[in-house]
Design a protein that fits this description.
There is one protein chain. By secondary structure, this protein is mainly alpha-helical. Helices cover 78% and strands 0% of the residues. The chain contains 10 helices and no strands. Helix 4 packs across helix 6. The longest helix has 30 residues. It is globular.
């Protein structure tokens, strides 16, 4: 209701929470011993399959985050409705999904949880792209839940793969995963210019199948 010019003020809450976390909740960083240090490639090599899984996930996440507004505007929503309602529904789903992965992994095992999340998000996104109105937003929200639910499980598993390099594992699984996904979003935009945004997103939704195959091969069954 206040207009887009007031959007920047919403950042103040995040800045305030970051200050609180920095001042009161973050533990002092542990100092790695010389024995724990290893060449970068020796750390990255066991994380490569996990990084590819994260890239596949972020291709979907970032493509929908970037082009969802354009898709919903083509369906008849205004810019404010498409960017407000559409992105809110999707991001709300991803926020909830980040809280569900850990408990599900503890109950069913990490490999089953990761594989199921990558396989499950494909039909949900397909249903979103092939429905209209309120039902499509329901599928969009559920897609966000399932898509991001594997994030904490993958990060924890990455840290286990390289003991003594937890920070590096997190950086590879999260930071470099975002970088790879962002680079692919450019290609998705070029594809959307040629075949349309809905068709381009319809092509993107199949990338989690590759991630599911990788997870089945490299992730152990443990919780």
């Amino acid at each position: 209701e206040l207009g887009l010019q007031w959007g920047a003020w919403a950042l103040l809450g995040g800045v305030a929470l970051a200050g609180v976390a920095l001042a009161f909740t973050l533990p002092a960083p542990a100092q790695a011993t010389l024995a724990q240090r290893a060449p970068l490639w020796a750390v990255f090599r066991p994380l490569l399959p996990l990084w590819l899984m994260v890239v596949c996930r972020h291709i979907v996440f970032m493509s929908f985050s970037t082009y969802l507004t354009f898709l919903l505007m083509r369906r008849g929503l205004s810019f404010e409705q498409a960017s407000g309602i559409g992105l809110f529904v999707f991001m709300l789903g991803t926020a909830f999904g980040s809280l569900t992965g850990g408990p599900l992994s503890d109950r069913f095992g990490r490999r089953a949880m990761i594989v199921a999340s990558f396989l499950g998000v494909v039909p949900l996104l397909w249903l979103f792209l092939n429905t209209q109105g309120a039902p499509s937003l329901v599928w969009l929200a559920l897609s966000g839940v399932v898509l991001v639910s594997n994030n904490p499980v993958i990060v924890a598993y990455a840290q286990e793969r390289v003991p003594g390099h937890a920070a590096t594992a997190s950086a590879v699984a999260m930071g470099l995963g975002w970088l790879g996904g962002a680079a692919c979003v450019i290609a998705v935009g070029l594809l959307a210019d040629r075949i349309g945004v809905e068709a381009a997103l319809g092509f993107v939704i199949w990338s989690p199948l590759l991630a599911a195959a990788l997870a089945w091969r490299v992730v152990d069954r443990g919780s």
